[in-house]
Q: What sequence folds into this?
């Protein structure tokens, strides 16, 4: 076949073929696992559960807020029951759309409807790569993973600490970790809701780097966090404390039940979804009691366990169905939704790829707005892999290309072009081809399309080996995004002052 | 977490966790890439192309048949033009549903509507595995791949020669290859349409092993073949010769244009689909001229090339969209459709997994009835990999589990079970869990869900390495399916007699 020389295109930043950073919008109809009737059955069952059993809110202030707003508090306990009317009335004030602002306005994201965005992995205790092996989380790897997040256009936002920097002291870790996040990237970021101080520090850092006042920040959300329930039916006190700070400041909280079917939730998919829905709605109702209109997201994390061992399994068919069904539930309430790109694999191998693909397709089909853990997740979230980070970038870029609606007009239909070529010829040098070939197809970042002999001559590198070369080169080519000197100084001063003041309590 | 001991379930045949062999039916709504208007635009453009430009049918008998039935033949040439009315009238007699009969009736498959089935790879010239490396196709590997096809319940039918047995003489290769296919498996099989003799021998072998007469065979299709067009706009003479034999005998022909966008078809997706649709409809119209009502399938194989090298690329976002759009076109004509599970990767690695996943999701979403090359495809079809065979089996089993509609009733909603467990507990020993855990979730064939430490202690095997162990054990445990002695004798006699008579000409 003929070779067509290729000009380098779409390669900013760095020298890799990348599509530009873009706000994605899913142009296709959402997929449905359950009929509308069955979604209604899940909805009703979850409201029944909140009414009859309720949830434990392990923070007296939260219980007091809920009681004051009309929920039923069992005296002397933290058990809160909610009538169906209370839940529906409260969640009605949650916004269906909002933006998550980044310090670089080009990286601000819209959430809601059919928007889509992918974040870097959050909260892994370990990190690994093919050169240095597996090790505990540390600040240096944390920073490198931020650099990759900045370099990859499909990493739309920072999802949390890609790996826990355990070499930083607990009380001031969040200050240094967040400072690194906002210096090494100019994308939207995440603060941990581990008590109110950490959350407020994250909000103040967002305000500083965006160069706005608190009032502007309160109508332009610039920090997001996740509040997991301790399934079944418990919200932890420290997380609620952080959630209160976020709601009051108008920042985004994602209420994500940790409903592993067969372990912390019923073994049936419908049952696990009933519990997930009850817990998510309870959290969202709570947020609206704190501050009506505060931006929230419906969190979907339902998966199943391996019934032989009790270990969680991710990227399974059950996970895919739960994710898509969760999209149906979130649309039922007109709420933005997050899910995840996950795998149980212990290596960045074929299993990691196919379990992540199950996740990514489910997220696309379910119209998931925020795909958390989009890049780097391995070992059920216990390890971030540099190679998996690159594998995920490629898979997300493919999904992004899938989401572009094909051209459709007379030129695209190409009847004249086919007639000009005619039978028993080819299209390589057809003017129709020559005018379009540079941008006609998705250009791979990682995939190798060489024939076997050329691939063998080049060293027979499998995809994982090639991924190692890519992240190494990407780190070499990384450039820190500019930060105005006065903002940089204000940031340094805030971190220094807060650190000297002792940071936040170790919880 | 607590351990729940697991009784061995669903493990027939062999000792691997497998779902039973089953006729799949897609319970979900088909996905749509194009609006109905745009599908109509593709339809109209393809009819315009057949009317104005036509196709070359490189067999005088085929040209004569088409001319006699009302197509326009350019005198002195093999160029055939078809009016829109001619095409629509002819394809209207093609059946929307039919069965492909296997010698074991339990393995007979239904095609049409929302049915789904996956076949083993066909026609690779090379074969590879992690133990013996890569080599040319040969009869021993051919037979081993049949044994795996028989052993894996998700391999619904034999898609062709999983690897070309080039050590068998060309003239009699089909006789020995087909004999092996029907002895080593009792699943439905494939004959090659390389001239009429080979096709007729395949049909006779089907008749013998099914123990029926020709008349029964003609209403119970028991052989299938693929007729590719030489895109653009050519049908090869030898294939048409085989296609005539198949249509007359009432056997299944899949007309599959080889429309690689940017090479043998326009660089635009819409244009490539216009050409695919024209070529497929022309083939199907031809089949109905030969024998109205003969079973046919719409073939989708549209993908794109790498514009840097001209090499074909498979499992791309463009391939996925083309596959789903082809499903829309086939439904427009009420015809069964085939597509493929494909990758360009040169190794059974993460790229192979994610490109195959792109293919498998597209096939599921597009309501593809026959997923050809379902198991084993690597290197753009130039090599069959034993490890990829197992990877694909796992991925197909996951897709099969995805296709089961979740239970939905009061028990499944599990409100009472959640209430009985209550907040801050777990479901491991809940009666609701205990009654259901054995069959609640898909059990993996290949995926490893151990934690990192246990996985490391067991040798840190990645998915590809584990696949090697699985195919080896599967071959060790293989048992040849029974064949009645009188049928076995008749089969041997037919092969011996036909071989002595010289087999079929080398084309």
A:
């Amino acid at each position: 076949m003929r070779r067509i020389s290729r000009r380098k295109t779409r390669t900013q930043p760095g020298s890799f073929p990348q599509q530009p950073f873009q706000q994605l919008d899913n142009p296709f109809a959402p997929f449905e696992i359950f009929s509308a009737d069955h979604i209604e059955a899940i909805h009703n069952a979850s409201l029944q559960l909140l009414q009859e059993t309720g949830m434990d809110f392990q923070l007296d202030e939260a219980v007091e807020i809920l009681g004051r707003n009309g929920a039923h508090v069992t005296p002397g306990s933290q058990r809160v029951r909610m009538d169906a009317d209370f839940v529906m009335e409260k969640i009605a004030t949650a916004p269906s759309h909002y933006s998550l602002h980044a310090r670089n306005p080009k990286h601000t994201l819209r959430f809601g409807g059919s928007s889509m965005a992918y974040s870097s992995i959050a909260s892994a205790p370990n990190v690994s790569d093919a050169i240095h092996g597996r090790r505990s989380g540390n600040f240096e790897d944390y920073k490198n993973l931020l650099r990759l997040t900045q370099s990859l256009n499909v990493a739309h936002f920072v999802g949390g600490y890609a790996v826990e920097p355990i070499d930083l002291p607990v009380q001031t870790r969040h200050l240094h970790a967040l400072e690194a996040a906002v210096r090494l990237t100019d994308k939207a970021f995440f603060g941990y809701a581990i008590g109110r101080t950490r959350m407020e520090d994250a909000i103040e850092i967002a305000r500083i780097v965006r160069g706005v006042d608190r009032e502007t920040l309160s109508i332009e959300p610039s920090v997001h966090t996740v509040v997991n329930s301790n399934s079944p039916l418990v919200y932890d006190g420290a997380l609620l404390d952080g959630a209160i700070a976020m709601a009051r400041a108008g920042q985004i909280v994602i209420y994500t039940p940790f409903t592993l079917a067969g372990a912390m939730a019923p073994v049936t998919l419908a049952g696990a979804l009933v519990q997930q829905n009850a817990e998510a709605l309870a959290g969202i109702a709570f947020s609206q009691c704190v501050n009506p209109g505060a931006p929230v997201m419906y969190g979907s994390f339902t998966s199943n366990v391996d019934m032989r061992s009790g270990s969680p399994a991710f990227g399974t068919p059950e996970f895919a169905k739960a994710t898509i069904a969760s999209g149906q539930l979130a649309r039922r309430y007109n709420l933005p939704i997050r899910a995840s790109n996950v795998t149980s694999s212990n290596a960045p191998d074929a299993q990691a790829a196919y379990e992540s693909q199950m996740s990514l397709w489910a997220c696309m089909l379910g119209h998931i707005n925020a795909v958390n853990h989009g890049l780097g997740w391995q070992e059920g979230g216990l390890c971030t892999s540099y190679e998996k980070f690159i594998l995920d970038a490629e898979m997300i870029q493919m999904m992004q290309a899938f989401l572009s609606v094909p051209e459709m007009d007379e030129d695209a239909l190409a009847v004249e072009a086919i007639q000009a070529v005619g039978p028993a010829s080819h299209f390589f040098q057809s003017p129709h081809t020559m005018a379009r070939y540079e941008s006609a197809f998705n250009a791979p970042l990682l995939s190798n399309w060489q024939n076997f002999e050329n691939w063998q001559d080049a060293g027979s590198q499998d995809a994982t080996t090639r991924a190692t070369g890519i992240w190494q080169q990407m780190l070499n080519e990384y450039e820190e995004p500019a930060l105005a000197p006065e903002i940089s100084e204000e940031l340094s001063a805030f971190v220094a002052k807060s650190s000297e003041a002792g940071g936040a309590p170790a919880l």
